[in-house]
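With this grant's support, we have paired protein sequences with backbone structure tokens. One protein thus recorded is set out beneath this paragraph:

_____
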Amino acid sequence: MSRDISSQFAPSWFSALEGTSTHGHEQRVRSFVRLWRAFMRARVFIAAVLLALQVFVVVTGTGGPQWLVAVCAFHLSAALAVLIWSKPIQPGRPFHFQWLLTIGVDVLVFAVLQFFQHGGINYTPLFALPVLLASILGPLMLALATAASVTLLLLGEAALSASLMGEVSTSRFLQSGLTGTGFFLVAVLANQLALRLAREEAVAQSSQAAARMQAQVNELVIESLSEGVLVVDRHGVVRNVNPAAQSMLMGDAYPHAAKLLLSARPGWEGLAHLVSETFVLGHPLESEIQVDIDELTTHHVFARTRLTSGQGGRQAGLCVLFLEDLREVEARVRTEKLASMGRMSAAVAHEIRNPLSAITQANALLDEEVQEAAQKKLTRMIDQNAQRLARIVDDILNVARAQPSQGDLPVPALPLDQTVRHITHEWTRQNQAQGVLGVHTHAPAAHVGFDPEHLRRLLVNLLDNALRHASGGPSSIRVITQPSGGDRIRLSIWSDGAPLESGVLRHLFEPFFSSESRSSGLGLYICRELCERYGAQIAYQRTRLDQREGNEFYVVMPSSDSHRTPMQQNLAYPDSVPGRTLPGHSRPGDAPLTLR
């Protein structure tokens, strides 16, 4: 026990932490204390037996002098005092006063009983207790010293008890020498066994701590995976599941306290069949499976199974099921493809500028020469469409490359309500949405720092998105402007569409992600980029309006009356993260959605 056993730990990247950890040291100290108390209780028990034996001998008159009862009573009192009031000796200290109170008292009392006791009682085996105590709880030097003292006492007792040098005394000396030799062997073997057990215990504690830490690391890794992981037994019972798999299978309705049976859940038949077939065939399988979350939601997942080794390696114990959302995979593939196409589109748009400029100039020269009204109308149409193409080229280039900071550049101050009414009127006429759109402006004096064309692009994108998901009934789409705090204006676009899926919410404002196969996924991304350019924030929430649940996209814009630059406006609200509001939550300082 006195050796430093931390160096004996099994080599691993955990051992460097565990070998010197406070937890490992405390475990070793607790183990030593338990062993020490076991020996102290054994001393008390032996002392009580000796006292009872001496009382019996005195009463029957078959033993030694009566004062041996007092010696045994003193031995019992000393053993109880050490057990109750004394603390264990720190391992590695060969000489300490407590060794005299334990080993010294035991050897002295046993020697007195051995020498003065009359009759056929032999107390020599009792000397094994102090020898074992010194060997197991103390260093080897103390164990050998105890064995040597016991041997000398036995030889001295043999010399004093022999009246003459004869055959009897020679055998007594020989017996004492053999007994002393046995005590030396016991001391050495017990000490070595104690050291070996201590090393094995340290290695076991280190391995157990490493296993616990490895299990915690595995749990953290599995919980943070975007890929779903399920652990299923041979009966189809789900033993464990990570958050990604919970979201894919049942979303927020996953019961955390109960175990699930794959075959008993509606919509999970494909998963149950794949797991059952994996156990039957005994090798991993892969398959694309449709999982029905509810009547309206269906997920297509790519499932892979892996079998764990059973006990003895004979039979598979558990099946680990890996689930990957195919929509996420397709979105990543589409992102890579569209990113490449975006770079190519930027190059093409850059090349379009030169012929587009030539067309514009040629149309201007042609407009100077023509005189007829019909021809003038045609040149105006060419000019309008050329300008529109120029704006599209600029938008493509703006999305493809990073935007320089606006800094302190001035931006026009637009009257928000008037601009919103003009844009929504044009949008309603172009989309034939009379009666579908309701416009409610409540900020007549508000001016915002926004480019008119960019504000139109922002509002039109949000309205187009709302029209695709709204019911199409009267006032199923609402546009609302209202003050939000002292220096901000809120523009809300609300529609009575169905709630967005959790998978869509996670990527709502990311580029090239869309819930529709024919959409490029750039609409909301461009809206966020435009808002960030002018110090505004855009977000989504599920909210109620006129006793109807709906989806609301809202933009909080700085008022131009605050005389601050867009960059300063953005820094004024550092806690706001554009496009990252959870359903049902608003940003700090946002006013609720109201109609007046």
About this structure: Residues 225-330 form a domain with the Beta-Lactamase fold (CATH 3.30.450.20). DSSP finds 16 helices and 13 strands in the chain.
